[in-house]
UniProtKB/TrEMBL annotation:
This is Adenosine 5'-phosphosulfate reductase. Catalyzes the formation of sulfite from adenosine 5'-phosphosulfate (APS) using thioredoxin as an electron donor. Its main location: cytoplasm. Its EC number is 1.8.4.10. The lineage of its organism: Bacteria, Pseudomonadati, Pseudomonadota, Betaproteobacteria, Burkholderiales. InterPro entries: APS_reductase, PAPS/APS_Rdtase, PAPS_reduct_dom, Rossmann-like_a/b/a_fold.
Length: 251
């Protein structure tokens, strides 16, 4: 069973402003920031050009991008454009370039594979079965991720232990099952600490977070969550599953 998120809605006005709802600077956050920066710096030294941040453009990944840019770390940034993302999500790519002077490499699915999948299974295949949903994720996410990570020795994610029961034991540094290191430098941060960092350093974020979407994926597969629901309850909400697409399944 997934852990229940400790979202602060019950005691906060429904302003629709994520910073107002969630941001709380904890006594531990300064130390956590310093530790995350050191992890990123060590990774850049260890892996050099073999290192990439694989950004979902969610709030956690935007915090990591800010850490990379703020501390002038030589780490490439890349993302996946599945062809089904919200316009608000894609809008962060030029904002990163404008704010940080960093270009984001964009990896898209192979167009012919998408056409064949949709022709065979339909535009709404993800709603028909878990197997078809995962097949859609395979075409739109896993294949382009494999190209993103080709030749890399390590990749950086925004995974946090608090996000779900399935992620409760996320390590700062682990083997991804493909011979690479998978790094999650803010794994021990809380949701309130993430937003406190956003507020303090004015990090650009997806406006959909203000609409009660803590975890944002493809548009057909994402909805707002209610008070007390798991962070990832809005992903593939019609399923009884672990709410994963295959990008972060433990080997």
């Amino acid at each position: 069973m997934s852990a229940v998120s400790s979202l602060a809605w019950a005691n906060s006005p429904a302003t629709g402003n994520a910073i107002a709802l969630y941001a709380r600077w904890s006594p531990q956050l300064d130390a956590k920031i310093a530790a995350a920066v050191q992890r990123l710096r060590d990774a850049a030294i260890s892996h050099g050009d073999g290192l990439v941040q694989s950004s979902s453009l969610g709030v956690e990944d935007m915090v990591i991008t800010d850490l990379i840019a703020r501390h002038q770390l030589p780490i490439d940034i890349a993302t996946l454009d599945t062809g089904k993302l919200h316009a608000e999500t894609l809008g962060l790519i030029p904002r990163i370039a404008e704010r940080y002077g960093r270009e984001v490499a964009v990896f898209q699915p192979v167009n012919e594979q998408v056409i064949q999948f949709v022709r065979r299974e339909g535009e709404d295949a993800m709603f028909k079965s878990i197997e078809l949903r995962k097949a859609c994720c395979g075409v739109r996410k896993l294949e382009p991720l494999a190209r993103m990570l080709k030749g890399r020795s390590a990749w950086i994610t925004g995974l946090r232990r608090e996000q779900s029961g399935a992620r409760a034991e996320v390590a700062f540094d682990e083997d991804d099952g493909q011979g690479r290191r998978k790094l999650s430098p803010i794994a021990d941060w809380t949701w309130t600490e993430v937003w406190a960092y956003v507020e303090r350093f004015e990090v650009p974020t997806n406006p959909l977070h203000d609409q009660f979407m803590p975890s944002i994926g493809c548009a057909p597969c994402t909805r707002a969550i209610a008070v007390g629901e798991d962070f990832r309850a809005g992903r593939w909400w019609w399923e009884e599953s672990t709410k994963e697409c295959g990008l972060h399944v433990k080997p």
